[in-house]
Write a structure and sequence with these properties.
Largest sheet of chain A: none
Number of helices of chain A: 8
Shape of chain A: rod-shaped
Structural class of chain A: mainly alpha
Number of domains of chain B: 2
CATH class of the largest domain in chain B: Mainly Alpha
Distance between the termini of chain A: 60 Å
Strand content of chain B: under 5%
CATH superfamily of the largest domain in chain B: Winged helix-like DNA-binding domain superfamily/Winged helix DNA-binding domain
Number of strands of chain A: 0
Number of helices of chain B: 8
Number of domains of chain A: 2
Structural class of chain B: mainly alpha
Radius of gyration of chain A: 43 Å
Largest sheet of chain B: none
Oligomer: heterodimer
Number of strands of chain B: 0
Order of helices and strands of chain A: HHHHHHHH
Order of helices and strands of chain B: HHHHHHHH
Strand content of chain A: under 5%
Helix content of chain A: 55-70%
Radius of gyration of chain B: 18 Å
Helix content of chain B: 55-70%
CATH architecture of the largest domain in chain B: Orthogonal Bundle
Largest interface: A-B, 41 and 59 residues
Amino acid sequence: MHPFGDLSAYLDEALSPEARASVQAHLDTCALCRTRLAELRGTARLIAALPMPVPSRSLVPRVSIPIWVAPLRTFSTFASGAAILVFLASAALSSFPRMTSAGSAPAAAPAPNTLSAPQASSGAAAASSTLRPQDFNPAAPSPAPAPNTDQLRVPVTQPSGAKEVGRVDATASPSIAYDAATRTYQAEPAQPGFAVSPWLWLVLGIAFGALSVILGRRLRSA
Amino acid sequence: MRPDVGGAANALIDRARRGDARAFEQLAIEIERPLYRHAARMLGHDDAEDVVQDALLSAWKSLASFEGTSFRAWVFRIVTNRALDRLRSRRRHPELPLDPPTENDDSASWAEPAAPGPELADLAADREALRVVEDALATIPADQRAALLLRDVEGFAYEEIATITSTEIGTVKSRIHRGRLAVRNILISRGWRGSGG
């Protein structure tokens, strides 16, 4: 009887010494079993010669890196980008009124500086009684001398503070009312929440960017 | 390289068992490709990457329970079990059981060549022949395929395969023979004839 079922184990040298000797003795006398053994050997060689597939990415888990590193790097990257965007927006907004006033000053200021001293002082008093000019300029990093606010007008809706001032000025002369309205409009950007220097956003952006780079190197080195 | 061979590998395993994550990562890098090769031929490329990554992470988490002598066989066991579990859940070939009950290995059929063809032993470099072998492997039961790949590709001994697949050596012997014979029969049916040597 042919020992077909033992041929693969014989080929793999996985038979006991007695079984192996028995199969060997049969192979010496059986051409058919020698043929089958050669076929199995050829099949095993073909299977072993199959090309090695390669994964598309590393499959090794980064167990040496704390679990919070990757999320923190992602957060740092986005935070850096957001801070720089805010910096750019702040810089653009702070420079916009100056650009506008520079273009509209000749036409919009027929004679705002021709106010008499009492008029100017009363108008200034009306404005300064509610808001101070240096509080309304978010682009001013320091309490620099107040610019000529009569020439800086921002076309915005009148805030509630302006109405109050406007009521006071309604009883005054037109020139004073104009002056008060002008000052009130100029005071409109006074929002203490945005009174942060744009440079602070730039510093934050750089800091988060540096943190992102450091964490990225840490991830790559693992 | 077989990570469980040599003193350096044993030192890495000892360090990894003591919690050295970098030592484990080095071991995993050395065994990553063979694990993926095995999983890809068991499952296909799509699922193989996930299975290997999950298996390596599982190995790291349960490394303290590793008490055997072969880290490589231990990780292959995790990958093989996960691959077989995924195949069972996938049910892509419900008509093809993982290891169907069969008759005695001695009575397994041997197909005869339909027409003269090239020698099997000379086909290793033939791309077409290798493609036929790959297709043939995909058609045999998963348990037979696992045992055959562990033997012919990865070079594990029958005893190691029995440990990896949690079966008896007799079962391993039967699976390897039947799987190899099935691939041989498919090759023969495609016009090749076996070597007479």
